[in-house]
């Protein structure tokens, strides 16, 4: 499905924030040209926690390698801009302006251009600060909420980068819709900090509703008596949540514990809450006698909230994701193929798949410039002058 077929995007990005925005548009069918330095996006060679950044966020894109600081390189970019619908950038503050590629510069060249600028902070007192996902998780209270009291801890994925990129894509789609009516493009801006603050709104309002500061998740006050992981016979953890009296009834029936359901001191959530230590100790002892598969089967039969506590790599073999095509086989460029999550959307029953693997550096430079009318001699000359790079 190619909902955005015919939309051309120039992506001046690195790391996750910008590439995540471009990924949404690329998966939806837009032609996304990833503009890279001659040596390629540095994210390509990251190790450690960042080793998966490039293959996850750069599928379905084409790579054009250009030296933006070379005068001829800038000429190449401006030629590309004339035929573009969207520009995405997440460079440090004022970098694109210094290169002569800011919104005002490019809008003067192409008034229909949608220009999406993704930064650490939106315009205001902090706008010149450099920010990262972890920085804004600390600033927004997200890390405070995630870790134990006094031990702030960033979330286990780059949640603000990914959400910021997604909000950027949402803004681009809205601006494209408005352009259909006005004929003109406009500037779309997203800030990582503002994205993190938006996600913390439910926690911010707690202090208003409850009249007290909100505790970290690890120290939060419970709403339900049974709402935690329990260890199976093998020692694997399964989260079980009993959030209504109907859940409690079905839990007792399926797990064959009629004495618990008949116990008047456990009849309501409030009473179960008062009996928390006794109740959870009993459930823990019961779960320790059952294999994980049996716990999962019974919880599903009872129709209560539950989840095996998985590691990320467990998702490769997840029954649901594999049965529904939720994982795409993405070539990594070195002979290996990885299963990676599909865009979590369906429109008209159709999902969005893989059109092309993550590109090699400069893989599409020659084709993109040929489409602009550059002849082979000119392209070869630009390669020889180290203005552009085209992979063999």
Q: Could you tell me the radius of gyration in angstroms?
A: 26 Å
Largest sheet: 7 strands, mixed
Could you please say which CATH topology of the largest domain applies here?
Answer: Rossmann fold
Shape: elongated
Task: Give the count of structural domains.
Answer: 2
CATH superfamily of the largest domain: Crotonobetainyl-coa:carnitine coa-transferase, domain 1
Strand order of the largest sheet: 6-5-4-1-2-3-12
Number of helices: 18
Please describe what this structure looks like:
The protein is α/β, with parallel strands linked by helices. It has 2 domains: about 10-200 and about 325-390, Crotonobetainyl-coa:carnitine coa-transferase, domain 1 (Rossmann fold), CATH 3.40.50; about 220-310, formyl-coa transferase, domain 3 (2-Layer Sandwich), CATH 3.30.1540. The protein is built from 18 helices and 12 strands. The protein has helices spanning about 15-25, 55, 70-80, 95-100, 105-110, 135-140, 140-145, 160-180, 190-200, 200-210, 245-255, 260, 270-275, 275-285, 290-300, 320-325, 365-370, 375-385; strands spanning about 10, 30-35, 60-65, 85-90, 115-120, 185-190, 225-230, 235-240, 305-310, 325-330, 335-340, 390. Helix 1 crosses helix 8 (about 160-180) and helix 11 (about 245-255) packs across helix 15. The mean pLDDT is about 95.
List keywords for this structure.
three-stranded antiparallel sheet, 392 residues, seven-stranded mixed sheet, Rossmann fold, 18 helices, alpha/beta, 41% helix
């Amino acid at each position: 499905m190619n909902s955005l077929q015919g939309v051309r995007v120039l992506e001046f990005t690195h790391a996750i924030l910008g590439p995540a925005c471009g990924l949404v548009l690329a998966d939806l069918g837009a032609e996304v040209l990833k503009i890279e330095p001659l040596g390629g996006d540095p994210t390509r060679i990251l190790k450690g926690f960042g080793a998966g950044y490039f293959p996850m966020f750069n599928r379905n894109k084409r790579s054009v390698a250009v030296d933006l600081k070379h005068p001829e390189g800038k000429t190449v970019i401006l030629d590309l801009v004339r035929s573009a619908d969207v520009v995405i950038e997440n460079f440090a503050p004022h970098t694109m302006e210094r290169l002569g590629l800011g919104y005002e510069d490019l809008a003067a060249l192409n008034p229909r251009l949608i220009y999406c600028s993704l930064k650490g902070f939106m315009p205001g007192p902090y706008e010149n600060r450099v920010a990262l996902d972890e920085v804004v998780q600390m600033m927004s209270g997200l890390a405070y909420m995630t870790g134990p009291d006094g031990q702030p801890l960033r979330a286990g994925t780059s949640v603000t980068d990914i959400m910021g990129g997604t909000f950027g894509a949402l803004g681009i789609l809205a601006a494209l819709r408005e352009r259909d009516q006005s004929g003109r493009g406009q500037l779309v801006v997203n800030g990582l900090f503002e994205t993190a603050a938006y996600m913390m709104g439910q926690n911010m309002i707690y202090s208003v509703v409850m009249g007290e500061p909100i505790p970290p998740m690890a120290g939060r006050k419970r709403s339900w008596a049974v709402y935690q992981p329990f260890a199976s016979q093998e020692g694997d953890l399964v989260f079980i949540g009993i959030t209504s009296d109907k859940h409690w009834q079905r839990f007792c029936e399926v797990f064959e514990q009629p004495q618990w359901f008949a116990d008047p001191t456990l009849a309501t959530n409030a009473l179960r809450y008062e009996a928390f230590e006794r109740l959870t100790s009993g459930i823990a002892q019961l779960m320790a006698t059952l294999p994980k598969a049996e716990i999962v089967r019974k919880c599903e039969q009872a129709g209560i909230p539950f989840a095996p506590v998985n590691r990320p790599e467990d998702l490769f073999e997840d029954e649901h994701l594999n049965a529904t095509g939720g994982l795409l086989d993405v070539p990594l460029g070195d002979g290996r193929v990885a299963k990676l999550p599909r865009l979590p959307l369906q429109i008209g029953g159709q999902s969005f798949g893989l059109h092309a693997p993550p590109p090699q550096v400069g893989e599409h430079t020659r084709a993109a410039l040929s489409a602009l009318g550059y002849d082979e001699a000119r392209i070869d000359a630009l390669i020889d002058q180290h203005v552009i790079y085209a992979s063999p």
